[in-house]
Specification:
By secondary structure, the chain is an alpha/beta fold. It is about 35% helix and about 15% strand. The protein folds into two domains: about 240 residues, Aspartate Aminotransferase, domain 2 (3-Layer(aba) Sandwich), CATH 3.40.640; about 100 residues, Aspartate Aminotransferase, domain 1. It is globular and about 65 Å long. Bound molecules: pyridoxal-5'-phosphate.
């Protein structure tokens, strides 16, 4: 067990086994006598890590042959730009479920404006600080793609099913990738930063349906072209070797516990434990609409009339060796991020702390 219960939203907790193995590779990579950060990425030792990592992605998410998975630098925020560069010709549609979704749309609007493409927001939940997922919106049939953010890290809402979409579906899955089984065949692109659930910051992943590419008439900068990274097997230029190595170790751990389906069962159990306590406890209330609640980021606030206890609870949790429970600065309150590597023991410890805190304030 770690010395601290880590509820950080990102970068976040990673499996101890992944960190231990990464330390080993930093010291002596596969018996080469060199560190993984001292060795060329054009060596068979490195290529075997890259191949293993790619295979694990394919295996764990059941990625069909129609799709390819690539890794590059830049974070999900650069991923926002890849989407319109590679897919936008005349029109794109976005679902605004939070600031990340809004930022993704901004990049499409900015690029689209340079050649007269239109970017529409089909629905937004900004009216209630994004505490629900809009329903009953209409996706324009002539859109080149429809963009969603499956897990809204800041607000604790999640689109937990693979939606039916009449146009190519693009999803930012930064904060729920590998937390549940996904029908990859339903998506044209799935992308995200690794640092919420599959590794450290520094590597971005994208799963791309290959036949979606090559359809835009504008120039795509080489490094922003998915095709470049597909053709180069994610080694067109020097890849972020260390983050990829840690990601590989994280996926090996995930496979070891039984893969994404087994992980999902544990994640649902963790989330239910915590949501049940929030509902039961007279001091706290959840902020996300029940049907849209995330199994990754659990957001809650002090109950009405108890607001002045907020800082005290944060200090109390800190005294119990819990880190990262403060809500995002834009929403306040609390957020417990309970990603894959967060053990159920940490969730139980948090539930106990909430119960103890309630007793203290009877
Ligand atoms: C954290 C996050 C991002 C931004 O990721 P970076 O890698 O820091 O650019 C984008 N989308 C979602 C859903 C996120 O949680």
């Amino acid at each position: 067990m770690k010395k601290v219960h880590i509820f950080n939203a990102g970068p976040c907790i990673l499996p101890e086994q992944a960190i231990e193995n990464a330390i080993e590779a930093l010291k002596d990579f596969k018996g080469t006598g060199m560190s993984v950060i001292e060795i060329s990425h054009r060596t068979k030792e490195w290529e075997s890590v890259m191949d293993e990592c790619r295979s694990l992605w394919k295996e764990l998410l059941n990625i069909p042959d129609t799709h390819e998975v690539i890794f590059f630098g830049g974070g999900a925020s650069t991923g926002f730009l890849y989407v319109p560069y590679n897919l936008l010709e005349k029109k794109a549609a976005y679902l605004e479920t939070g600031v990340w979704a809004k930022k993704a749309a901004k990049e499409a609007k900015g690029l689209g404006a340079t050649f007269g493409a239109e970017v529409v927001t089909v629905a937004s939940s900004a009216d209630t600080t994004y505490n629900y997922i809009p329903k009953n919106y209409e996706i324009p049939a002539d859109a080149d793609y429809f963009h969603i953010t499956t897990n809204n890290t800041i607000y604790g809402t999640e689109i937990k099913e693979d939606i039916d979409c009449p146009v190519p579906l693009v999803a930012d899955m930064s904060s729920d990738i590998m937390s549940r089984p996904v029908d990859v065949s339903k998506y044209a692109v799935i992308y995200g930063g690794a640092q919420k659930n599959v590794g450290p910051a520094g590597v971005t992943f994208a799963i791309i349906r290959k036949d979606i590419l090559g359809k835009v008439s504008h120039y795509i900068p080489t490094m922003l072209s998915y095709q470049t990274h597909i053709d180069g097997a994610s080694m067109f230029n020097t890849p972020p070797v260390f983050p990829i190595l840690v990601m590989n170790e994280t996926l090996k751990w995930l496979k070891g516990i039984g893969g994404v389906e087994a992980m999902n069962k544990i994640n649902v159990e963790k989330a239910e434990l915590l949501y049940n306590e929030i509902e039961r406890n007279s001091l706290f209330v959840g902020t996300a609409a029940k049907e849209d609640r995330s199994i990754m980021n659990v957001c809650f606030v002090m109950a009405p009339g108890k607001e002045d206890l907020q800082d005290e609870f944060l200090a109390f949790a800190k005294s119990k060796k819990m880190a990262g429970l403060k809500g995002h600065r834009s929403v306040g309150g609390f957020r417990a991020s309970i990603y894959n590597a967060c053990p159920i023991e940490s969730v139980k410890a948090l539930v106990e702390a909430m119960q103890e805190f309630e007793q203290l304030h009877k």
